[in-house]
Specification:
globular, 101 residues, four-stranded mixed β-sheet, alpha/beta, 4 strands
């Protein structure tokens, strides 16, 4: 999986591409740390547009991000989920935990 972190105004965006699974945990954790490091950031958006696959460990990593962000006083939203990725998020009821758009 490839990750890119960018910041614009008060939002950090973590753009993911490829397979979001257990093998991605170190790279995702590093991206989370970069996204949460800016004191001016109030929201972290995880862009899933280019994610072809995610598994239960990816869901756990998103929950870890949510907990870390909450501890830092920031919110998290999931963006651009489509196809099977969107289905997995729906089945896992992530819409109750995150804004998804």
């Amino acid at each position: 999986m490839d990750t890119t972190v960018s910041t614009q105004q008060n939002q950090a965006r973590i753009q993911l591409s490829g397979r979001f699974d257990f093998n991605s945990h170190r790279e995702f954790r590093d991206a989370v740390d970069r996204a949460l490091s800016s004191p001016d950031t109030s929201e972290v958006a995880v862009d899933l547009a280019n994610v072809a696959y995610l598994d239960s460990s990816a869901l756990g990593m998103l929950l870890m991000l949510r907990d870390k962000a909450k501890g830092a006083g920031k919110t998290v939203r999931l963006a651009n989920a489509k196809g099977s990725v969107h289905q997995v998020l729906e089945i896992a009821n992530f819409g109750k935990l995150f804004p998804i758009d």
